[in-house]
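Meet our chain:
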Amino acid sequence: MQQQMETTQKIQYISKLFQSTAVDIKDELEERFERAYINLQQQINGLSDKDMHDKLSQLVCKEKQHEEISIGFLYIMLTDPALAPKSYRDLTLVARDGMNMVVSNLTMLVAEKYNKLTEIARRQLIWLLRELVKHQVLNVENIIWNCLRQAGGGDVTPKNLFLVESLLDIFIEYRPWLETQSLLIQTVVYNYVRLIEDHASPALTALRHKEVKFVISLIRERFSDVIPLGRDFVRLLQNVARIPEFEQLWRDILHNPKSLHPTFNGIWQLLQIRTSRRYLQCRLTPELERKLHFLTSSVKFGNQKRYQDWFQDKYFATPESHSLRSDLIRFIINVIHPSNDMLCSDIIPRWAIIGWLISSCTNTIASANAKLSLFYDWLFFDPLKDNIMNVEPGILVMYHSIRSHPSVSSTLLDFLCRIMKNFCLKHEDKIRMGVYNSLNKILEKQVIPNIQPLFESPKLDRELRMLIRENFREFVSPAAPTGNVGPPMYPGASSVIQAPVFKKEADQRSLHQGAIMFGSGGAATQQQPQPQHDLQHMQNHYQPHMTNTADLLEHSHAIDSGGGGGGVAGGGPVVGGIVTTNMADEDNKLSIIPPENNDGETEAAFSEDDEDIKDVKNEENTDDDDDLPLSKVRLKEKPEKPEKVDLPASISDTFETFVTKRNSFTWEAFLEDFRSLPASALDDAQLQYVISNTHLILRETLPVQNIFPESKTDEKNLAKSISYPIFGLYRFLYENEDKSKKPFQTLLTEICTRIPETGFLLLYFMKVHVKLQTRKNAQQSAQFKTNIYRMICDAVDEKLDDCLARDLDLLEKENTNIYLWLLPDIYREFKSIAINNSDLLRITLRCIDARNLRDLMYYVAQGKLTLFKADGLIECIRDSLVYETFEQLCLWQLVQAHDVPLKCLQDILPELESANHPEALGYLLLLLKSEEPTNELIRLLLSRETKSRGDPFVTSALRFWCQRSEEKLSEIIASLLTSKYPSSSPNKRKRPLKGSSALNSTPSADQVLSHLEHYRRSCRHGTGTGLYVHDTMQRALQTAYTHSTESTKKQYSDLFSLAAEDETTAVGRRGGSGRGRKQPTSKKDSSSSSANSKKNSDPVKTVYTSDEDSSEEDWSKQKISQAKKRKKTINETINSD
């Protein structure tokens, strides 16, 4: 009886917080919340407030009790609206961690259990969230981020709308708090721009108006925070471009970008920035993300139909839900990157899921948006920075669909041809270049064997084939006919198609410059298999199952300018198709498709019927890989064991033992015998037999995944991670460093060549080996033997720095954490190569986040890591100017951590451009503020090019120096200006000789005057004009005026007017009504020497005047007529001011 009561009580508690059915089982999280609530009730039941506070204050001293009490109060606040305010007050009184326990548990609850919360709990969640924001509790933004993820796209149910509007109200009410969270601003803007698209119903007009007003104001006021959202933000903006407020925003982006932010240069700046995966992820609910991961990692190709049907019923049942397809496609392309092991398995590939999402869409606008999402990364693809995995699905959908579902391929090809021209007319050439780069990378990496079966398929209509030839003439065979194409499809001999050639050097660098070979064969002729490339030890095929599919959506031709969008260049974003990053490139994670066999009936199976699959499987042709499932293809591709060859007796036994047992001990025993074997003891066949078996065993015994342990402190896991046979080779080399015989060198060369991971695995081995040996014998530390790595480099005949950069690049792509773990050792042991190495620096910067940056700075501060040295650092800085903004900001943080003095960086000052290098200029300006002005610094600053609006960097530096060292600054600038006019030739300037360094290392007179003029303009309110008062500057300006041409005098007339007639006069500072000069007391005084004039002249007051009767003395007594002309010009200028 008591047990039944306890069971009933638990059910009652669960029902307060979570919705549950009869078949639901409580998980650990639910039980923990319930247990904490019961425990809290037992502690405080019947106590007064004072007694309760005293008792809880004692209990929270214990960490476990503190957690239980915090969760108990959280349970009450979420389930009892009446007691929630009192519970929140009590919690604030007893909490010892600033509510961190509540925030972390609430974050977990929202992420994992939001959909199971009762309606009361969801409303109380919003109430509690508002309180946490109101009191600015730390890390509350994590809860908000998870709440925004729960606001699903394509969902207009009351439950979802309540969450969307409630969060919006919090953001509006606590806008000042929101504006302190830069990352949260980006997330809020990205999410609400996407959600506004779904709220087009008249019933949602009020909500939509509130959303639009808030988002537009946030974008306009915080545009600098919005810029990092990048190209996918542009894609979302196009979907709402018909809303008047967004239409005006589009006009500003296209035609008046500076009105949004001074550093914003237009639409192309946004399109060049790859949107972070974080924002693509936040548009999928956690539940939907889990389902999608399951589909792409656990469902076999051919068994996906029931999952797709469930997906369709669950998420695509309403008209508004079609917009979710674009979110899913962008997530699959940019976030889900399968490993090599997944690619060669029979798991459903990404292209099949994307093909199903596009082909099952019945809304034309959503279909166009989905196609754009598929090809979006193609339009801006840069082979040096972007990931081949982002363009792989697009080509594979078309390639696998062309035979069985040509309408899908036709639709996508037509869309791709037209989007290149119509997406953004102003940047059509750049977009075309991006698509060409994508195709070249696809062919280079053998994603498909050749492009002809797709571009020249007879199943494409004639008009489309002509359109393809017009847009992709570089990729189609020149011999291919333009009319109806019938068999044979290709000419008998293989034709060589050159990659597109462009005049601009930048275009040539961006494009793959090799010939693309196409195999020969006809429609009825089976092609010979193409040689397989060893790509990260992977030789695999994408092989769709044979099946029949329902008729697919007919393709629409043009990219319509109406209905949801417009074209970016045409004054508004283009229809649906509208266009749209620390991640490492994963070029090696590709699948290699065998040459097309036109006899096969392989189909692109997006959603197949089980009956059709069974019928087709009975007709397998084992002679053709196209008719085999992937599992059987993998068996056929498995390398055959080399035919046995008799070996010399000295190595025969140990080698056979190694081949049989395949472990590290037998491998090292064989190496011991093989190392001293002379070349004469082996013939070529025997040596190849050893090499082939060795490569096969080393490759097969090396794990495909999880080769590195999760824990880097557990000795057992570390030791296990280097127990595989390939590490036995490194251990053997560690103990036998002296030169070996030729057969051993040949074996080592072949291993390093055939197994690309050899280099970075050796680096990992040395780190772990040294760590373990040092722990065993603390008195004698093991050595990090870099000469072993040099031996590996010599074996592949490459330079050490090239090998190191390549291996670390591969390691970072394989495991970023291990790469960062090895980094201090790499820079310590290879310091002559690693320090100031731009390649290694770029690899590091592209993969780190804020936490990694913090750890690197810790290493630098502790002396464990040195990335830079003074000599050569400036070259690293020059190379970094093209990095992404976050990478550059990280770089400057690391430079600051090294306490690099300004003198090591100052030579780059004249090279930096205000518009293109804001990161470098911002950091250097902070360095300048801590320095005193020197001749060298001023020379470099004034050597910077000035534009019509001046150089704000130079102006800023001069202004803060003027506040501290005005006289010194004036003297330095005056000296530099005077040096431009040699006194030996007052009427004619001396020109520097050809080859003189003065041309490059010192500013011209015009540059100095230009900077001084722009500085003068920044002093319009009377501040900072003291720079021109000092005698040295007065004399310098007078000298400059005397030796300047008439055009220069006219150009800088306002600047020259600040100079007195001679050294006895002071400068009249610019006032509110005009500008004047102090008059000399007499002509006699003005012609006397400077010393006598200072002694004898009467003090006079500064005169501010703007009328033509003001006295203007001549600048030079020898040129009175010229002075009169100038007097008139100056006074006219003053009057005009």
